Amino acid sequence: MPIYLQIVEQVKRSVALGILQGGEQLPTVKQLALDLTVNPNTVARAYRELEHSDVIETSPGRGSFIRDNGGAQSAKTAASDVARDALDIALREAKSVGLSRNDVRELIDTVIDRWFPEGQ
Fold first, then answer.
1. What CATH number is given to the structural domain containing 9?
2. 27, 78, 93, 94: which has the fewest C-beta neighbours closer than 10 Å?
3. Which residue, 13, 11, 12, 16, is CA-closest to 72?
4. Domain region containing 95
């Protein structure tokens, strides 16, 4: 997975888990690039993607901040985004190893039953 997408996923995951709260300021592009030892353009691309997804808002001269748009709802949306991305990767992998649609459905049902037993 490209580095900029890893940054996007980590920020979304942090919002979903409540580690990052609405209104909280993110590091500058330059600072995060230094911390992660990546090109600043990579961080800028991640921030643009997060802004496009309404996870953050950027104010010229002030910085980038986690959007404060409904708290619980934005966390739920971020959690869904993270889970969707993980499922997408898993399904792509299943397809690449030759599993059929029905094989994948059976696997998904088995995993769902393991993680969400009846009555939960």
1. 1.10.10.10
2. 93
3. 16
4. 1-120
